[in-house]
Amino acid sequence: MSRLVAVSNRVGPIRGATRAGGLAIALVDSLKASKGLWFGWSGKIAEASSGATTERGGGLHTLTTDLTPQEHEDYYNGFANRCLWPLFHYRIDLTAYDRRYFDGYRRVNARFAQTLRPHLLPDDVIWVHDYHLIPFAETLREMGVDQHIGFFLHIPFPSREVLLTLPHQDRILQALMAYDLLGFHTERDCERFLDYAVNEIPGATLAGDVLCALGRKVRIKAFPIGIDAREYAEFVWTEDGQRQWQRVKTALRGRDQIIGVDRLDYTKGIPQRFLAYERLLQDYPATRGQVEFLQVAPLSRETVPEYATLRSELEHLSARINGAFADVDWTPLRYINRTVSRRGLAGLYRASKVGLVTPLRDGMNLVAKEYVAAQDPADPGVLVLSRFAGAAAQMKAALIVNPYDTVAVAEAMQIARHMPLDERQRRHRELMQGLLDYDIRRWSREFLGTLKETGGHGD
Ligand code: ADQ
Questions:
Q1: DSSP conformation class of 327
Q2: Nearest to residue 377, comparing CAs of 440, 439, 431?
Q3: Known catalytic membership, residue 154
Q4: Whose CA is nearest to atom 26 of ligand 1?
Q5: What pLDDT does 457 receive?
Q6: Which residue in 89, 154, 185, 428 is the catalytic one?
Q7: Spatial separation of the C-alpha atoms in residues 243 and 346, rounded to whole Å
Q8: Whether the Cβ atoms of residue 360 and residue 268 lie closer than 8 Å to each other
Q9: Which residues lie closer than 8 Å to 42 by C-beta, 6 or more apart?
Q10: Which of 228, 263, 295, 338 to mutate to test ligand 1, by most ligand atoms within 8 A of the CB atom?
Q11: 122: exposed, middle or buried (C-beta count within 10 Å: 0-12, 13-18, 19+)?
């Protein structure tokens, strides 16, 4: 059995300990099964880059390296989060391209690849994750590494026209061609990538799902990430899950709760969601005193200026809505920046009649899946889901909305609140079946299975 080497920006719980989601769990499972190695940034910033640290424990072998303050600024804050993140989410207006960021991004990727190189074994299968690490394989190939290397993009792949606005976008494309397998969340992402590659690389050809260009063959395939739905449903019954559920039920006193849960990020459409809720209270006066909207949005990427702007915008909007509609015994909107534990979150979802998941763009969106998994099958809540989340391609039994259309989103909240029980059950059954059919373990199994049968050793 070949060994898995996973490479991601952060090692361990991929996006923060309390939010350690299914992805970390799926990777850990596969890593343990193959006695694999997990490599990436330690999460620490140190004045001088100190080589790499190896740790073994709990059946896991990790290799991590620190970033210098300059690397952190150029690679992580700069090119990854101020350039690729907004651009890939169609926010050309927020894309802060800077040649210094781009150089730093390439330098860190090259250094990471050089750090990993001596630890590689001939039969390793290497799985690189996400937009921070696009050029990683290119350096490995330059150093003669011919093992199977796959890349999975967790965010959307944008349309060609959007990508062409990025200076040096051709370097990004060239870097992607160093992989054997490129995985995206949806078929649409694959189509957008192929449209870009076939039209921008002279002589590129496509045979089935294999792109031939720049002297290489790369397979392109959709792997829609899932969650461990069965385990997630159990979270409701844990101590934390029960505590949060009961707290909310008591506070609601029979009112309907609408819930939004996101990292505080401009891609998640939180201001538009607040406006849609304001619209609901304006257009349907009977909802006043009868509904409450809970938005849980822990701060993220606080050192990136656009996130501070978003934070003040939301504080302003929530104050405006509560100022206009609140009564002595009713707070229409509760907006909290605290992180809730994964189990506690399941309790909050369970207590909510409507799950409002309305990103302006999202690779997949796991909150939509978690909300469904946490529902009571006998009396489930209704998911209102943005058509621009990758999840919408699979979760067709949700109420699909355009998040920019605040009137329509307000209307969808009303439809959801008043939906007959049999229709809620039918939609929930269909959604839950989808989650069980393609869960997080199937996602990693299929990616790795495809990678093993694709490329490698100079094929
Ligand atoms: P994210 O942009 O982080 O992930 P998402 O898919 O919704 O978005 O995952 C967030 C995770 O964090 C979920 O497991 C959720 O429960 C948790 N979380 C969010 N808000 C929280 C809160 N307030 N308290 C506690 N936990 C919270 C990126 C892409 C997505 C893609 C994933 C996985 O942007 O599109 O689905 O990677 O590929």
A1: B
A2: 431
A3: yes
A4: 19
A5: 55
A6: 154
A7: 10
A8: yes
A9: 11, 53, 64, 65, 66
A10: 263
A11: exposed
pTM of the model: 0.96
- Tally of helices (H runs) and strands (E runs) in the chain: 17, 16
pLDDT at 305: 84
89 is catalytic: no
Task: Give residue 456's pLDDT.
Answer: 62
Tokens of 161: 């026209």
Structure tokens at 335: 């907006």
Specify the pLDDT at position 19.
45
Task: Report, in this order, helix, strand and coil percent for the chain, each rounded to 5.
Answer: 50, 20, 30
The amino acid that residue 288 corresponds to is R
Q: Is 363 a pocket residue for ligand 1 (Cβ < 6 Å)?
A: yes
CB atoms within 10 A of CB 161: 10
Task: Read off the pLDDT of residues 70-83 as tens digits, 9 standing for 90 and up.
Answer: 999 999 999 999 99
Residue 297: exposure state from Cβ atoms within 10 A (0-12, 13-18, ≥19): buried
**pLDDT of res. 15:** 39
Query: Of 132, 362, 428, 439, which is the active-site residue?
Result: 362
Q: Which residues contact 217 (CB under 8 A, 6 or more apart)?
A: 180, 210, 211, 455, 459
Residue whose C-alpha is closest to residue 7's, from 165, 136, 179: 136
* pLDDT tens per residue across span 321-337: 999 999 999 999 999 99
Asked if residue 354 lies in contact with residue 382, where contact means CB atoms within 8 angstroms, the answer is yes
| Under-70 pLDDT residues of the chain | 12-22, 49-50, 456-459
Domains of the chain: 4-226+440-453 (3.40.50.2000), 229-437 (3.40.50.2000)
| Cα–Cα dist 223/394, whole Å | 11
The beta strands (E) that lie in 223-343 are given as 256-261, 291-296, 333-336
